[in-house]
Amino acid sequence: MGERVRVRKDRDERREQILVCARELFSERPYEEVSNTEIAAVAGVSRGLLNHYFGTKRELYLAVVERMLHIPPVPVPAYEPGASVRERVTESITGWLELLERNAGTWLVALDMAAGTAGDDELARLVDAAREGAVDHITEVVGLSRLAAEHPEVRSALRGFSGMAEAATREWLRHGRLTRPQVHLLLEDTIMHLIEETVPRMTAEA
Q1: What are the pLDDT digits (tens) for 145-158?
Q2: Letter string b/e over residues 2-20, b meaning 16 or more CB atoms within 10 A of that residue's CB
């Protein structure tokens, strides 16, 4: 039994090593300039083993993009008696920005990849799934999961907020035109205005 567990762990470790090396190479150079042979060499595995795990370079690339777009989410703050929605929002945004700051390079490359989905249906689906997951997280933090399920316009509004959050973090991490405290203020005030003012008006009209 112990040997089987060890074999599985070795396979998982090799697959993870391939993904890490592929991510680094795709982050440094355009897709067309990176080959599976180079990735295998950098990862220290055979070309055959790489193909066994991922098949084509295209399949490996999609696996890398999916991994990069799904930076582990910040846990939803536990419900504390007396805690306000703003306090939960503050805690969640603080954790998210800390996570992005630690993974700035990966996040920026993921945003670049997400921006290049025109005409690529598979890549577009990966990006869309990642953004839907972000909206799920937001609705849980602010307590709007049920309302968003009943009112598609609420979910669409939160998709818009998610896109703004992506743009704001790019301004901070890539261009330096916003500071982290400014990004936090922008996101916190915007989401609070959405849930306190905009969403009630939208659902009332609906």
Answers
A1: 999 999 999 999 99
A2: eeeeeeeeeeeebbeebbe
Phi, psi of 123 (to 5 degrees): -65, -40
Domain borders along the chain are 2-68, 72-205
Determine the average pLDDT of the residues in 54-80: 81
When the pLDDT of each residue in the chain is averaged and rounded to a whole number, the result is 88
- Of 5-19, 74-88, 151-165, where does the model show the most confidence? 151-165
Domain boundaries 2-68, corresponding CATH code: 1.10.10.60
Report the C-alpha gap between 14 and 9 in whole angstroms.
Answer: 9
pLDDT at 2: 54
16 φ, ψ (degrees, to nearest 5): -65, -40
* CA 18/CA 47 separation, integer angstroms: 11
Task: Give the C-alpha separation, 74 to 60, whole Å.
Answer: 26
